[in-house]
Amino acid sequence: MRSDDSGTNPYATPSPLSVESSQNASFVGTDEDLHPFRTIWTSPRRTVRQIVSIDPKLHVVPLACLAGVGETLDRASTRNAGDDLPLAAILGIAILIGPLAGLFSLWIGSHLVRFSGSWIGGVASREHIKTAIAWASVPSIAALPLWIPQIVLFGSDLFTQETPGLEAQPMLLIPFLAFALVELVLGVWAFVLLCNTIAEVQGFRSAWRGFGNLILAGAVVVVPLLGLVLVVAMLSNA
């Protein structure tokens, strides 16, 4: 994994040797250069750099809300929510609660990434981290329209452990797997973009360091929880 830009980063603390080169940098685009919904796919670092230079809040809220809808549908599918809820209820929850969940995820995620990133030299503000997270979700949001034909074709089978519809019509397995593959590719690409956008705003040269920042952010939550589980287990066995 590598970034698409290796130039001087505007978020890194300038050193005496880099002052002259940074003065000559021309990486900040103009409004005419900014086509973020297109360029984020292949030039995430340059795109997020332009966005935070022009308007860090650009589309952040709607992107987070849409990402929340997609994440809610994904979780309902993986957790077989249809075993307990009708399809209409699942869709209603995704549409009404999903946006709020997306905003909360963005809020807590920006805190965790900023906090853990400071351990490895990250310099981004929480606002810029929110920009990086929101815009990296574009590929995942692009998968949202795929839910429409899937619901038409597969119905509640998308959200249940048992899949009677697919079993009754084996030919539906082909489009089912095709949709799953497309969503997997988009999800992986969204994560690659996230590593790059986080690296950019944090002042990291390598997207791998952005990946490390995300791992640390997850560890901030997971490690204490594991410790708590171990303590409870030890006390219960005492």
TrEMBL record:
It is found in: Membrane. It comes from Crateriforma conspicua. The chain crosses the membrane at residues 87-108, 129-152, 172-199, 211-235. GO terms for cellular component: membrane. This is Yip1 domain protein. Residues 1-23 are annotated as: Disordered. Residues 40-226 form the Yip1 domain. InterPro entries: Yip1_dom. It is a multi-pass membrane protein.
